[in-house]
Aminotransferase class I/classII large domain-containing protein
Amino acid sequence: MGRAKCGETRPSFLSQCLSSNFAAPLTPPLPRKHVGSREGLVNPWGNQLVTDLRSSEVVVCEFFNPNLLSSLLPSFHGFLGSPLELFFGLLGSLNLTAYPTSPVLGSWRGEEVKEEEEMGSFGRLARRAVETDAPVMVKELLRGNKDVMSLAQGVVYWQPPEAALNKIKEIVWEPSISKYGSDDGLPELREALLEKLRRENKLTNSSVMVTSGANQAFVNLVLTLCDAGDSVVMFAPYYFNSYMSFQMTGVTDILVGASNPETLHPDVDWLEKTLRENNPIPKLVSVVNPGNPSGAFIPKPMLQKISELCRNAGAWLVVDNTYEYFMYDGMEHYCLEGNHIVNLFSFSKAYGMMGWRVGYIAYPNEADGLHAQLLKVQDNIPICASIVGQRLALYALEAGPEWIRERVRDLVKNRELLMEAMSPLGEDAVKGGEGAIYLWAKLPEKCSDDFEVVRWLANKHGVAVIPGSASGGPGYIRVSFGGLKESDTRLAAERLRRGLQELVTEGMVQ
Ligand SMILES: Cc1ncc(COP(=O)(O)O)c(C=O)c1O
């Protein structure tokens, strides 16, 4: 796996198109050096980025398939609204060709691109945002397809504990619910979480900050621990929101390691080499355990090894434990603690609280200044997590882990149904699912365009899954087994089986 200089090696398709539309000759949107490439790069619009980025006099080619793009436009969200569809349709007739970087720098900054700089043009938007990958939005994926069953979104089908919801009904008129709370979180919730961390996660030397979900927790950490231009490490297939958090905060030197194709565990030898040889040393290593999108669970000795490598190198280890309760087949979740380790948690899946936006960071007591810096970031983003959400989290904790485990046990049947549904892909094609709510499946070689397959499955077979490219895994799909009850999963599984059977035997017949 190579180094992905995100903002640089992935010149935004949008900015390319825009600059080519507004300026003649074609102007590069990125008057910078390109130094690496991510293999098999496909952006969320489905166009292949073919890059040869080893020299500073770089040539970037972007092959644009207008048919594919227009077919995907209704499916993917970003800053593309429907009025832009026409615009991009027109752009389809443009032939984007290779351009040299430096000779046209002047025109990027000069008169010719004046329109780029006018208010209301894309040129006025931050490259940091424009050049960040767009998330695959499941609702958009399903738009216009009324009868599509979703195995796409990473959600659970249950609601928060009934008793907890009933208590919320009683407290909404309390004035404190509508006021700001302390940045760190409600004291009573933090106390309950510290107790939970001690009892369940064996974290005895950690402090807690309550956030608006684990995603915001991750952004807080990136802003607190990394500077723009720092290098960081993650492993493919990775959690796409973490990748985007790095990109949009300017941490564009993302070193993406491989995972073992059999186990989907991170390549620890690669990490060792990377931490040893990379100068400057990567600032942060990020893992999700159990994983999204893989559903793979990193065994304790392996995470301990990763932790040791990070400690010796002076890198932070951030572990996202969003799926801590989602463990199967007798495996038990664990956490590690150390003054270089930060653990993230979420109420979203465990307690069916996706929309209430509550998560938390467990960070080491002994890290100098970390608390103060985290507070600065927190105070500028949510100020505090929603108070009513925090109160619900507090009441939900009273239901306890057994309440969650009862529900998680039922997911085993869903997983089995979907594993069976994917059997047409071949014996060795489906991996993961040891934990979390995901299976990770390799598409047949002859139909390995995952975006195309996802669209085709939704349109023709009425079932939605996530393209692996979104997580750095082109040629794969992610299938979630958490979002539907067993009866619905059964129906979705039948559709998926039919679709995959057809894919394998006949290809994507329209
Ligand atoms: C690994 C991981 N981390 C974080 C999140 C987001 O969690 P939250 O809703 O708490 O922001 C998700 C949601 O899919 C996830 O899969």
Summary: Residues 1-114 have pLDDT under 50 and may be disordered. Residues 154, 213-215, 239, 288, 292, 320, 322, 346, 348, 354, 359 surround pyridoxal-5'-phosphate (CB under 6 Å).
